[in-house]
Amino acid sequence: MNKEILECVDKIVAYIKNTSSYQGYLKTRELLDKDMELKKIIADVKRYQQMLVKKKDTEIEKKLDSLIEQLNNSPLYLEYNNYLEEINNMLIIFENKINKYFNDVFN
């Protein structure tokens, strides 16, 4: 039974990997990994977010807002985020369908 379940999961994973959303995600992630300026901005955003969690400070908030604005002005970053959101939505749909199926079968 475990093997059968894993085979079904493998089919779902293969399906996702063959979608244009996943392929676009891989391409934009590769481009993003090569863009040192964007990588630095992303790292800075994470650092400032951590700082803000530890200490509420308006200067930190302003710097973080500025960095996020820079990211949101990057077409590559926006495209990457869009693909990532599409994939996450696809996963949510699969999860909901599986949950509904089991709910219908057992209730």
Portion of residues in beta strands equals under 5%
Low-confidence stretches: none
Shape: elongated
Q: Work out the helicity level.
A: over 70%
**What is the H-and-E element order?**
HHHHH
Q: End-to-end span in angstroms?
A: 22 Å
CATH superfamily: YheA/YmcA-like
Number of domains: 1
Question: Based on DSSP secondary structure assignment, what is the total number of beta strands?
Answer: 0
Number of helices: 5
The CATH topology comes to YheA-like fold
CATH architecture group name: Up-down Bundle
CATH class reads Mainly Alpha
Category by helix and strand content: mainly alpha
Q: Compute the gyration radius: what is it?
A: 19 Å
Tell me, rounded to a whole number, the average pLDDT.
Answer: 94
How is the biggest beta sheet arranged?
A: none
